Each structure stands twice: as C-alpha cells, then as structure tokens.
Hints:
Elements: H1 2-32, E1 33-40, E2 43-50, E3 59-60, H2 78-92, H3 99-106
Parallel strand pairs: 1-3
Antiparallel strand pairs: 1-2
Amino acid sequence: MTEHSNSMQKPFNRKIIYVTALIFVLLIAWLFTGYVRSYLDEGQQTTFFIKKFPTFQVEFVDPFANEGDSPAIADLSTVDRKSLVDYCKYRFGVASNSDDALDTCSQHIPGYLKQ
C-alpha cells in the first residue's frame, strides 16, 4: 500500500512544483513589467517597458505622452508630478524628484511620439 500512495504523491508533488514555479515567474514579470498609455490622434496606444526597479505598480502615467503641448514641470499638479516622478523612476531609473531631473526625464520622448 505504501508503493501505491508513494506513486500517487509524485505527480502531485510535480504539480506543486510547476504551480509554484509558474507563480514565481508571474510574480517576477509583474514586478518588472510596466506600461504607459499615450493618447494620439488615432486613439490610445499602450507601450510596455521593463522597470528599472521592482514594484507592484504596473500602469504608469506620463503627462507628456500625447501630441499636444507639454506643460512645464513647475505647472504640473501635485498628482501629475507624483505620477511623473514614479514613471521616471521606474522606466528610466531617475530617482530624484528635482525639477532638473524631471526635465531631463521628460526629454526622453518615446519613439512612438516622435514625428
């Protein structure tokens, strides 16, 4: 009887290992993958990127991701500035929230917005 119960446990143990490995891979992907939405004339576009630092936040906001005129850093609302700080940190590795650092970050216009 022990042989039978032993052979039943092997497939069950493999399933646990596979499920655990899958959960681990998905967690790593979640921590290191992000996306930003841009709004162009023809509609909304989603761009995925690899984060420079792990975070559970997946969707990021870039106030400059549109074809309109970009606002000055100093004119951004508190919420928009925080969104830009997070976006710059996780997409480009700019960890400072100074105006100069954010201005440098805003100069990294993604290729899909360049005409």
